[in-house]
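User: Please run a holo structure prediction.
Assistant: Happy to. Please share the sequence and the ligand.
User: Here you go; the ligand is 5-O-phosphono-beta-D-ribofuranosylamine.
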Amino acid sequence: MSHVAQSGTPMRLAVLISGTGRTLKNFIDLASEGQLPVDIRLVVSSTAKAGGLKFAEQAAIPTRVIHRGGYPDGEAGDNEFGDAVFAACRAAGIDYVAMAGFLKLAPVPDDFADRVINIHPALIPAFCGPGMYGHRVHQAVLDAGVRVTGCTIHFVDNQYDHGPIIWQQPVPVFDDDTADTLAARVFEAEKEAYPHVLRLLAAGRIQLDGRRITIRKGQRGDGSRTGPYPIE
Ligand code: GRF
């Protein structure tokens, strides 16, 4: 990929949030411990009420609040909103954009194609799409009676939960699960899987061919597994 930071230089990342920001906090903590080669240069929130903004402020990361409601309804407004979000990322010199609990559709402009990723708390293409977020996802998993769920990290295209899949981490569903217990188990998997994908991107190991991803092998001992079980 052409936008990988130079070897040894942390990848310049923007994180898009709408809510509690647990994913952002995980990235900030790992980066500060030297466990994640990212320089979080910008946090964009779709609401001033997002709890995650405080994590950015504590870490002295610049923030922007861009409301979807500031733009017209419908597709034209979606595009204007996306343009505003990505203009902020462009101005900050961002390599990759990670959506982390970002609940708005922000169409990706051409210069950010294949540079925007998202995480969904289920195994796409199941239990995803418009309106499928938060506990609704986990309740739908329980209601369907499936025995395995998980999380999916994927490139973002201009449909909800639809772009090429980079990584899926399976999580078991237990008989006595509630949406809360399942959400907590899936989130533990997310805390490992999403940073793992960022490390792969930073190392230039993700190759995209149509909808299929190939993960190039890395050096021995660098966490070079390319399948979903378990992350080294
Ligand atoms: C996670 O469930 C993730 O899969 C989804 O948003 C949730 C994280 O939001 N995309 P947050 O980091 O707690 O705000």
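The chain has a mean pLDDT of 92.
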